[in-house]
Design a protein that fits this description.
With 178 residues, the protein is of the alpha+beta class. It has a single domain, classed as Aminopeptidase, CATH 3.40.630. Helices cover 35% and strands 33% of the residues. It contains six helices and seven strands; from the N terminus they run βαααβββαβαββα. The chain has a seven-stranded mixed β-sheet with strand order 1-2-3-4-5-7-6, with helices on both faces. The longest helix is centred in the middle third of the chain and has 16 residues.
């Protein structure tokens, strides 16, 4: 690989990934930034996976880095469009820099394999890591939904909205390869 570090790849999530993904999702460092922050049980997780797997507008992916599952990506196509919203998280023990690889692999899959036109993302306003992550990937700000999310503890949070068009991603990708 000429000294370059692999950015990893994504693959469809399988039923055999359920325990691992649930462990990641329930980790306090992941769970605290979710819209639903309760600890998810295995039965609830299985029902979610069964429903999501039947939904033609949803794509569940596992990110692998150097052959090791390291993250999760959820792409939900808005019905009848070529636009999707995404959600993602890394394994709590993911190596430093794994987020960049997850983002690159997921966007490549979304735009080149699925043929999407746009990816929309959202982050709670206090989630600085997610805000910077979207910005580094080239997402543009599309506004703030003020006091949009009511957390389980009764605190309201604003939600920052992002969007990335395929043309923007392709242009940035081409510039990075020069």
């Amino acid at each position: 690989m000429n000294g370059e570090r692999s950015l990893g790849s994504v693959r469809p999530m399988a039923a055999t990934d359920l325990d691992m993904v649930l462990l990641w999702r329930n980790h306090p460092d992941v769970r605290r930034w979710m819209y639903t922050t309760h600890e998810i049980g295995l039965d609830e997780h299985r029902r979610w996976f069964e429903d999501a797997s039947k939904d033609r507008n949803r794509v569940l992916l596992v990110y692998e880095l150097e052959g090791r599952a390291t993250g999760f990506v959820n792409l939900g196509r808005i019905r009848g469009t070529d636009v999707a919203e995404w959600g993602f998280y890394l394994a709590p023990d993911a190596p430093a820099g794994a987020g960049a690889g997850l983002g690159a692999a997921a966007l490549e899959h979304a735009f080149l394999v699925l043929g999407l036109h746009k990816i929309s993302g959202h982050a709670l306003a206090g989630n600085e890591r997610s805000l910077r992550f979207h910005q580094r990937l080239g997402f543009g700000s599309e506004g703030v939904r003020r006091d949009h999310h009511l957390a389980a503890d009764g605190v309201r949070h604003s939600v920052v909205c992002f969007g990335l068009l395929r043309e923007e991603w392709l242009a940035a990708r081409g510039a990075a390869r020069k």
